[in-house]
Amino acid sequence: MTDLIESEFISKTWPTLSQMTYLNNASTGIPPVNAFKAMKQYLDNSANAAGKIEDTLKAFKEIRQNLATLLGGDYNQYAFVPSTSEGVNTIAHSVEYPPGSNVVLCDLEFPANYVPWQNASKLYGFDLRVVKSDEGAAPLESFKDKVDENTKVIAVSQIQFGTGFRSDLSRLSKLAHDNSAILSVDVIQAAGCIDTDLVKSGVDFATGQSAKWLLGPIGAGYIFVGQSVLEKLRPRFIGWWGVEELMEFEYRERTPLPDARKFQVGSPSMVSYVGLLESLKTLLQIPGKVRETAALSNSDYLRKRLSERDIPFYDFGPENNSAIVSCKPQDVEKLHEELLKNKIHCSVRNGRLRISPHLYNNQDEIDKIVDNLR
Fold first, then answer.
1. Which residue spans of the chain are classified as CATH 3.90.1150.10?
2. What's the CATH number for 44-283?
3. 2 — pLDDT class (breaks 50, 70, 90)
4. What is the pLDDT of residue 113?
5. pTM of the entire structure?
6. Which ranges in the chain are annotated with CATH 3.40.640.10?
7. pLDDT digits (tens, 9 = 90+) for 181-224
8. Average pLDDT score over residue span 269-279
9. CATH for 2-30+287-371?
10. How large is the angle between the packed helices 270-283 and 33-47, nearest 10 degrees?
């Protein structure tokens, strides 16, 4: 459904897409041209000792405001972290774990959303309970047997990186809250693509970074902290960006900020966030439902074409499908190499070909990759 977004807007905003077939957004998205220009300008300013800290702080506030517009809530619920892994560690080390506590996640998670929990379980002594997936899916029912009154956190990805399974966050949050637990969500494979409201979904904590569907640079990560848990969570680490009166440097007792920024430890990667700001501005020119519909229409068309070619793929139904399509043509690794030679970009994950179209893709590109599959 390329008519949802004008082709001229796409060609002007992402000019390099004309030189390749890019269907690998679950790995990294292509930043808009304005993001590159803004980052270059920032570096040029640095080389000429230009720019003021007040301008930087203003830009940081605008980024948080744009994240709130994109993902829901108030801008004071957002703060910066270098990566998704850092964001997951933030929540993992901010929760109290009385004896007998447990944390529940599933075996589909990317390492960024399970390695920190494995480490935390060793440090704090809680039981790490792993839900077993079935055919690429981990629905709500599979979590119910693992969650009880001693569960402190349910940790899940909104969309699973390898299979594309999309979780029902509202139902998971109810399961968590019915057991006085926190729902922590890795949103990296959804933010910028799937129209999401973290507050309406009942999410307590979320984290991601900009280099995938947000179409920003690596190094610009973020967290969201729900109002109901903001005062309950206690930062394990704190730094000068997380306290009041940022620009007062003399030695004295410092007070943590009252909002999500209390979890910020050190100076953010300025140039990365300059790029993220422009990426967010570009995405927010397109209504959330339009972004989602454009991406999902591409992935739905891909599933249709794969079915016509009798190539197996995961299909979880309309409620749980995403823009990530995991399929299994023959000789996946060799096929992937051949696709790259033809400037057709996708990924191999867990022995399957992962194709992930975004809002700037179209059905002609889907036809091109399918015609190259065996």
1. 2-30+287-371
2. 3.40.640.10
3. very low
4. 98
5. 0.96
6. 44-283
7. 999 999 999 999 999 999 999 999 999 999 999 999 999 999 99
8. 97
9. 3.90.1150.10
10. 150
pLDDT at 374: 72
